[in-house]
Amino acid sequence: MATDHPRAPRFTRPFCASVWNSLTLLRYPGAVNLDSPRILVLNAGYEPLGLASVKRAVILVMNGSAETVEESGEYLRTPRAPYPIPSIIRLKRLIRRPPGRLALNRRNILRRDAYTCQYCGKKGSDLTVDHVLPKSRGGRGIWENLVAACRPCNLKKKNRTPEEAGMKLARRPAAPRHGLLLVADLPSLPEAWRTYLPDIEHR
Q: What range(s) does the HNH nuclease domain occupy (predicted)?
């Protein structure tokens, strides 16, 4: 005769709401913004899907929509007991993402190039976008022909190719992977994430 297996505890939405009325960090009080995106969200098939705030991630786990894959080592104080903050969560239902291309714009070009001038290595958020093959000479506005460049380098290059201007590109531009732009704005990449983002360079 079949027997019922015990189910994992499931938190109700009212309980989740009551938890967030009294949540505070148990470790490093005030050091973490609960609303900033810092939790890696995996699809049901373990591919990276996006980033979530601590608040969003914990509620997804509490209501049974996701499970914790890796913990961060930090905790939240709840009415019942300290609750571990996840570092990585996995959705239990598959989210079908359309295969559309990443938006080609200045922000994403700078993010792809790590906010670094591809000619001199200067870092900053005020960089310009340069056409490797000048637009006036048939250069297209595509990932493979656009790079981040500081203003002095852009002015120095003028209406020339890097070779003609005596300048060298740090790397050959290419369309970025979804995972790269996903974490481009983070100051550092948690070690546990590298298993799910194998194409991201060490930083």
A: 104-155
